[in-house]
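Quality-control log, excerpt.
Job 1 of 2 completed; input and output follow.
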Amino acid sequence: MFKTSIRTLLAAATMSTLTIGIALAAPTQTGATSKGPALTDDKGMTLYTFDKDSDGKSACNGPCVGNWPVLKAESSDKPADGYTIVTRDDGSKQWAYKGRPLYTFVKDQKPGDVNGDGFLNGAWHIAKP
Protein backbone atom coordinates (compact mmCIF):
# COMPACT_ATOMS: atom_id res chain seq x y z
CA MET A 1 0.00 0.00 0.00
CA PHE A 2 2.80 2.42 0.86
CA LYS A 3 4.53 1.83 -2.54
CA THR A 4 1.30 2.47 -4.40
CA SER A 5 0.75 5.76 -2.54
CA ILE A 6 4.26 6.99 -3.33
CA ARG A 7 3.89 6.02 -7.01
CA THR A 8 0.56 7.85 -7.16
CA LEU A 9 2.06 10.96 -5.54
CA LEU A 10 5.08 10.92 -7.84
CA ALA A 11 2.89 10.52 -10.91
CA ALA A 12 0.66 13.40 -9.79
CA ALA A 13 3.67 15.62 -9.07
CA THR A 14 5.20 14.83 -12.46
CA MET A 15 1.95 15.62 -14.27
CA SER A 16 1.57 18.90 -12.34
CA THR A 17 5.11 19.92 -13.24
CA LEU A 18 4.56 19.10 -16.91
CA THR A 19 1.26 20.97 -16.99
CA ILE A 20 2.78 24.04 -15.31
CA GLY A 21 5.78 23.97 -17.65
CA ILE A 22 3.56 23.93 -20.71
CA ALA A 23 1.13 26.56 -19.43
CA LEU A 24 3.90 29.00 -18.53
CA ALA A 25 5.76 28.93 -21.86
CA ALA A 26 6.62 32.36 -23.24
CA PRO A 27 4.25 33.48 -26.02
CA THR A 28 7.09 34.93 -28.10
CA GLN A 29 10.43 34.02 -29.59
CA THR A 30 13.50 36.13 -30.31
CA GLY A 31 14.37 36.81 -33.94
CA ALA A 32 17.06 38.70 -35.82
CA THR A 33 16.28 41.96 -37.62
CA SER A 34 18.36 44.65 -39.31
CA LYS A 35 17.87 46.65 -36.08
CA GLY A 36 19.03 43.88 -33.75
CA PRO A 37 17.17 41.20 -31.81
CA ALA A 38 13.39 41.54 -31.55
CA LEU A 39 10.53 39.66 -29.98
CA THR A 40 8.60 37.74 -32.63
CA ASP A 41 5.37 35.79 -32.84
CA ASP A 42 5.24 32.06 -33.59
CA LYS A 43 5.62 32.78 -37.33
CA GLY A 44 8.80 34.82 -36.75
CA MET A 45 7.09 38.17 -37.42
CA THR A 46 8.43 41.19 -35.52
CA LEU A 47 6.41 42.39 -32.55
CA TYR A 48 5.93 46.04 -31.63
CA THR A 49 4.88 48.25 -28.73
CA PHE A 50 2.90 51.49 -28.95
CA ASP A 51 3.76 54.64 -26.97
CA LYS A 52 0.08 55.56 -26.56
CA ASP A 53 -0.59 52.37 -24.59
CA SER A 54 -0.57 52.81 -20.85
CA ASP A 55 0.89 50.09 -18.67
CA GLY A 56 -1.36 47.08 -19.16
CA LYS A 57 -3.92 48.88 -21.37
CA SER A 58 -4.08 48.98 -25.18
CA ALA A 59 -4.90 52.28 -26.93
CA CYS A 60 -4.95 50.58 -30.36
CA ASN A 61 -8.59 49.77 -31.05
CA GLY A 62 -10.97 49.92 -34.00
CA PRO A 63 -9.24 50.74 -37.31
CA CYS A 64 -5.83 50.74 -35.59
CA VAL A 65 -6.04 46.95 -35.11
CA GLY A 66 -6.47 46.55 -38.88
CA ASN A 67 -2.89 47.78 -39.33
CA TRP A 68 -1.50 46.54 -36.02
CA PRO A 69 -2.95 43.08 -35.28
CA VAL A 70 -2.66 42.17 -31.62
CA LEU A 71 -0.72 39.21 -30.28
CA LYS A 72 -3.82 37.36 -29.11
CA ALA A 73 -3.94 35.42 -25.88
CA GLU A 74 -6.39 32.59 -25.32
CA SER A 75 -8.48 32.22 -22.17
CA SER A 76 -6.46 29.12 -21.27
CA ASP A 77 -3.11 30.98 -21.51
CA LYS A 78 -1.27 31.82 -18.30
CA PRO A 79 1.23 34.65 -17.70
CA ALA A 80 4.90 33.69 -17.95
CA ASP A 81 8.10 35.39 -16.79
CA GLY A 82 7.86 39.03 -17.93
CA TYR A 83 4.61 38.38 -19.81
CA THR A 84 1.10 39.36 -18.77
CA ILE A 85 -2.29 39.17 -20.42
CA VAL A 86 -4.31 42.37 -20.83
CA THR A 87 -8.02 42.66 -21.50
CA ARG A 88 -8.83 44.81 -24.51
CA ASP A 89 -11.79 47.20 -24.82
CA ASP A 90 -13.71 44.54 -26.78
CA GLY A 91 -13.11 41.95 -24.04
CA SER A 92 -10.55 39.92 -26.00
CA LYS A 93 -7.17 39.07 -24.49
CA GLN A 94 -3.74 40.26 -25.65
CA TRP A 95 -0.20 39.39 -24.62
CA ALA A 96 1.96 42.11 -23.09
CA TYR A 97 5.70 42.08 -22.34
CA LYS A 98 6.83 44.02 -19.26
CA GLY A 99 3.36 45.59 -19.19
CA ARG A 100 3.46 46.70 -22.85
CA PRO A 101 0.82 45.18 -25.18
CA LEU A 102 2.32 43.45 -28.25
CA TYR A 103 1.34 43.83 -31.92
CA THR A 104 2.48 42.81 -35.40
CA PHE A 105 2.39 45.18 -38.41
CA VAL A 106 0.49 44.42 -41.64
CA LYS A 107 3.25 45.89 -43.84
CA ASP A 108 5.80 43.39 -42.52
CA GLN A 109 5.72 40.64 -45.13
CA LYS A 110 8.36 38.22 -43.89
CA PRO A 111 10.25 37.37 -40.71
CA GLY A 112 12.86 40.03 -39.92
CA ASP A 113 10.90 42.90 -41.51
CA VAL A 114 10.78 46.01 -39.29
CA ASN A 115 8.62 48.36 -41.38
CA GLY A 116 6.63 49.45 -38.33
CA ASP A 117 9.58 50.69 -36.29
CA GLY A 118 9.25 54.47 -35.84
CA PHE A 119 5.83 54.59 -37.52
CA LEU A 120 3.37 57.36 -36.56
CA ASN A 121 6.03 59.94 -35.66
CA GLY A 122 8.02 57.41 -33.67
CA ALA A 123 5.13 56.05 -31.57
CA TRP A 124 5.70 52.41 -32.64
CA HIS A 125 8.81 50.50 -31.55
CA ILE A 126 10.30 47.06 -32.04
CA ALA A 127 9.67 44.98 -28.92
CA LYS A 128 13.12 44.13 -27.59
CA PRO A 129 13.87 41.01 -25.56
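Job 2 of 2 completed; input and output follow.
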Amino acid sequence: MYNIKVFVVDDHAIVREGIKAMFKNAPDMELVGEAENGDETIEKLKYMSPDVILLDIVMPGINGIQLTKLIKQAYPHIQIILLSMEITGQLIGNGIGAGASGYLPKDSSKEILFEAIKKVKSGDKFFAESISEVVFDEFFKNSVRGDRRGGVGFATKISDREMEVLKLIASGKSNREVADELFISIRTVDAHRNHIMKKIDARNTADLVKYAIKNKLIELFD
Protein backbone atom coordinates (compact mmCIF):
# COMPACT_ATOMS: atom_id res chain seq x y z
CA MET A 1 0.00 0.00 0.00
CA TYR A 2 1.35 3.46 -0.93
CA ASN A 3 2.15 5.69 2.01
CA ILE A 4 2.31 9.47 1.93
CA LYS A 5 5.82 10.42 3.05
CA VAL A 6 5.79 13.23 5.61
CA PHE A 7 8.67 15.32 6.96
CA VAL A 8 8.36 17.61 10.00
CA VAL A 9 10.35 20.78 10.74
CA ASP A 10 10.13 22.44 14.17
CA ASP A 11 12.79 23.88 16.46
CA HIS A 12 11.09 22.39 19.54
CA ALA A 13 11.89 18.74 20.14
CA ILE A 14 8.73 18.24 22.20
CA VAL A 15 6.59 19.34 19.24
CA ARG A 16 8.39 16.98 16.89
CA GLU A 17 7.98 14.13 19.35
CA GLY A 18 4.27 14.88 19.66
CA ILE A 19 3.81 14.80 15.91
CA LYS A 20 5.82 11.59 15.62
CA ALA A 21 3.53 9.99 18.20
CA MET A 22 0.54 10.82 16.01
CA PHE A 23 2.03 8.85 13.13
CA LYS A 24 2.34 5.57 15.01
CA ASN A 25 0.10 3.16 13.08
CA ALA A 26 -1.15 6.04 10.90
CA PRO A 27 -3.08 4.77 7.87
CA ASP A 28 -1.63 5.45 4.41
CA MET A 29 1.14 7.77 5.62
CA GLU A 30 4.46 7.69 7.42
CA LEU A 31 6.85 10.16 9.00
CA VAL A 32 10.13 9.74 7.12
CA GLY A 33 12.26 12.47 8.66
CA GLU A 34 12.56 15.55 10.83
CA ALA A 35 14.65 18.69 11.20
CA GLU A 36 14.94 21.44 13.79
CA ASN A 37 15.78 24.36 11.51
CA GLY A 38 15.93 25.55 7.92
CA ASP A 39 19.58 24.69 7.28
CA GLU A 40 19.11 21.11 8.44
CA THR A 41 15.98 20.81 6.29
CA ILE A 42 17.75 22.01 3.15
CA GLU A 43 20.60 19.57 3.75
CA LYS A 44 18.30 16.57 4.33
CA LEU A 45 16.16 17.32 1.28
CA LYS A 46 19.23 16.71 -0.88
CA TYR A 47 18.81 12.97 -0.28
CA MET A 48 15.18 12.70 0.88
CA SER A 49 12.00 13.22 -1.10
CA PRO A 50 8.96 13.65 1.14
CA ASP A 51 5.52 14.26 -0.32
CA VAL A 52 4.44 16.69 2.40
CA ILE A 53 6.37 18.87 4.85
CA LEU A 54 4.84 20.04 8.12
CA LEU A 55 6.64 23.31 8.72
CA ASP A 56 6.74 25.57 11.76
CA ILE A 57 6.60 29.26 10.89
CA VAL A 58 8.51 30.77 13.81
CA MET A 59 12.04 29.37 13.90
CA PRO A 60 15.49 30.88 14.50
CA GLY A 61 17.53 31.56 11.38
CA ILE A 62 15.50 30.82 8.27
CA ASN A 63 11.85 31.16 9.26
CA GLY A 64 9.04 29.02 7.91
CA ILE A 65 7.91 31.53 5.29
CA GLN A 66 11.42 31.94 3.88
CA LEU A 67 11.98 28.19 3.96
CA THR A 68 8.71 27.59 2.12
CA LYS A 69 9.90 29.80 -0.73
CA LEU A 70 13.25 28.01 -0.91
CA ILE A 71 11.68 24.55 -0.88
CA LYS A 72 9.06 25.35 -3.52
CA GLN A 73 11.72 26.84 -5.80
CA ALA A 74 13.94 23.76 -5.55
CA TYR A 75 11.28 21.05 -5.11
CA PRO A 76 7.95 22.29 -6.51
CA HIS A 77 6.38 18.82 -6.15
CA ILE A 78 6.67 18.92 -2.34
CA GLN A 79 3.51 20.19 -0.65
CA ILE A 80 3.90 22.31 2.48
CA ILE A 81 1.56 22.71 5.43
CA LEU A 82 2.49 25.55 7.75
CA LEU A 83 1.96 25.13 11.49
CA SER A 84 1.68 28.05 13.88
CA MET A 85 0.29 29.09 17.25
CA GLU A 86 -0.33 32.55 15.80
CA ILE A 87 -3.18 33.07 13.33
CA THR A 88 -3.17 36.44 11.58
CA GLY A 89 -4.12 37.61 8.12
CA GLN A 90 -0.53 38.72 7.54
CA LEU A 91 1.01 35.33 8.36
CA ILE A 92 -1.62 33.43 6.43
CA GLY A 93 -1.14 35.71 3.44
CA ASN A 94 2.62 35.36 3.60
CA GLY A 95 2.34 31.59 3.75
CA ILE A 96 0.02 31.39 0.75
CA GLY A 97 2.17 33.82 -1.18
CA ALA A 98 5.27 31.72 -0.46
CA GLY A 99 3.62 28.63 -1.91
CA ALA A 100 2.19 26.78 1.10
CA SER A 101 -0.71 24.43 0.37
CA GLY A 102 -2.14 24.48 3.89
CA TYR A 103 -2.08 26.27 7.23
CA LEU A 104 -2.99 24.72 10.57
CA PRO A 105 -2.97 25.86 14.18
CA LYS A 106 -0.53 23.82 16.26
CA ASP A 107 -3.36 22.62 18.49
CA SER A 108 -5.14 20.90 15.58
CA SER A 109 -6.35 17.36 16.20
CA LYS A 110 -4.73 14.31 14.64
CA GLU A 111 -7.81 13.85 12.46
CA ILE A 112 -7.54 17.38 11.05
CA LEU A 113 -3.80 16.99 10.50
CA PHE A 114 -4.24 13.74 8.57
CA GLU A 115 -7.07 15.21 6.52
CA ALA A 116 -4.89 18.18 5.62
CA ILE A 117 -1.99 15.93 4.59
CA LYS A 118 -4.21 13.83 2.31
CA LYS A 119 -5.80 16.88 0.73
CA VAL A 120 -2.58 18.71 -0.09
CA LYS A 121 -0.99 15.51 -1.40
CA SER A 122 -3.89 15.19 -3.85
CA GLY A 123 -3.26 18.73 -5.09
CA ASP A 124 -5.91 20.53 -3.07
CA LYS A 125 -5.48 23.30 -0.52
CA PHE A 126 -6.38 22.91 3.13
CA PHE A 127 -6.98 25.64 5.67
CA ALA A 128 -8.47 24.91 9.07
CA GLU A 129 -11.86 26.49 9.63
CA SER A 130 -10.36 28.98 12.09
CA ILE A 131 -7.82 29.99 9.42
CA SER A 132 -10.50 30.52 6.79
CA GLU A 133 -12.51 32.62 9.24
CA VAL A 134 -9.54 34.96 9.74
CA VAL A 135 -8.87 35.24 6.02
CA PHE A 136 -12.41 35.86 4.92
CA ASP A 137 -13.40 38.06 7.84
CA GLU A 138 -10.53 40.29 6.82
CA PHE A 139 -11.56 39.84 3.18
CA PHE A 140 -15.05 41.08 3.99
CA LYS A 141 -13.99 43.98 6.24
CA ASN A 142 -11.59 45.31 3.65
CA SER A 143 -14.07 44.81 0.83
CA VAL A 144 -16.33 47.40 2.44
CA ARG A 145 -13.43 49.86 2.24
CA GLY A 146 -12.46 48.79 -1.27
CA ASP A 147 -13.25 52.05 -3.05
CA ARG A 148 -11.39 54.18 -0.48
CA ARG A 149 -8.31 51.98 -0.74
CA GLY A 150 -8.32 51.94 -4.49
CA GLY A 151 -9.43 48.33 -4.38
CA VAL A 152 -12.08 46.58 -6.37
CA GLY A 153 -15.02 47.14 -4.06
CA PHE A 154 -16.03 43.51 -3.49
CA ALA A 155 -18.97 44.42 -1.23
CA THR A 156 -20.88 45.61 -4.29
CA LYS A 157 -19.99 42.47 -6.22
CA ILE A 158 -20.45 39.59 -3.80
CA SER A 159 -23.77 39.17 -2.02
CA ASP A 160 -24.09 38.16 1.63
CA ARG A 161 -25.20 34.66 0.62
CA GLU A 162 -22.32 34.32 -1.82
CA MET A 163 -19.93 35.37 0.94
CA GLU A 164 -21.34 32.62 3.17
CA VAL A 165 -20.85 30.06 0.40
CA LEU A 166 -17.37 31.42 -0.29
CA LYS A 167 -16.25 31.07 3.34
CA LEU A 168 -17.56 27.51 3.61
CA ILE A 169 -15.97 26.39 0.35
CA ALA A 170 -12.66 27.96 1.40
CA SER A 171 -12.78 26.07 4.70
CA GLY A 172 -12.64 22.84 2.71
CA LYS A 173 -16.30 21.84 2.81
CA SER A 174 -17.80 19.93 -0.10
CA ASN A 175 -20.80 21.23 -2.03
CA ARG A 176 -22.98 18.74 -0.16
CA GLU A 177 -21.71 20.00 3.21
CA VAL A 178 -22.26 23.62 2.17
CA ALA A 179 -25.78 22.79 1.02
CA ASP A 180 -26.59 21.01 4.28
CA GLU A 181 -25.20 23.82 6.44
CA LEU A 182 -27.04 26.59 4.58
CA PHE A 183 -30.20 24.54 3.98
CA ILE A 184 -30.04 25.00 0.22
CA SER A 185 -29.74 22.58 -2.69
CA ILE A 186 -26.46 21.43 -4.20
CA ARG A 187 -27.58 23.01 -7.46
CA THR A 188 -27.91 26.35 -5.68
CA VAL A 189 -24.43 25.96 -4.19
CA ASP A 190 -23.06 25.26 -7.68
CA ALA A 191 -24.78 28.36 -9.00
CA HIS A 192 -23.38 30.57 -6.22
CA ARG A 193 -19.90 29.14 -6.70
CA ASN A 194 -20.01 29.76 -10.44
CA HIS A 195 -21.18 33.34 -9.91
CA ILE A 196 -18.39 34.02 -7.41
CA MET A 197 -15.76 32.53 -9.71
CA LYS A 198 -16.93 34.66 -12.62
CA LYS A 199 -17.14 37.83 -10.54
CA ILE A 200 -13.54 37.62 -9.32
CA ASP A 201 -12.11 35.61 -12.22
CA ALA A 202 -11.09 32.65 -10.02
CA ARG A 203 -10.51 29.07 -11.15
CA ASN A 204 -10.45 27.31 -7.78
CA THR A 205 -10.48 27.78 -4.02
CA ALA A 206 -6.80 28.71 -3.91
CA ASP A 207 -7.46 31.49 -6.43
CA LEU A 208 -10.05 33.01 -4.09
CA VAL A 209 -7.45 33.53 -1.38
CA LYS A 210 -4.71 34.57 -3.80
CA TYR A 211 -7.04 37.13 -5.36
CA ALA A 212 -7.67 38.65 -1.94
CA ILE A 213 -3.93 38.97 -1.44
CA LYS A 214 -3.31 40.42 -4.89
CA ASN A 215 -5.91 43.12 -4.29
CA LYS A 216 -4.45 43.96 -0.86
CA LEU A 217 -7.41 42.57 1.02
CA ILE A 218 -4.75 40.65 2.94
CA GLU A 219 -1.46 42.46 3.44
CA LEU A 220 1.76 40.68 2.49
CA PHE A 221 5.07 41.42 4.13
CA ASP A 222 8.53 40.21 3.09
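Post-run check on job 2. Confidence is low (pLDDT under 50) at residues 143-156, 217-222.
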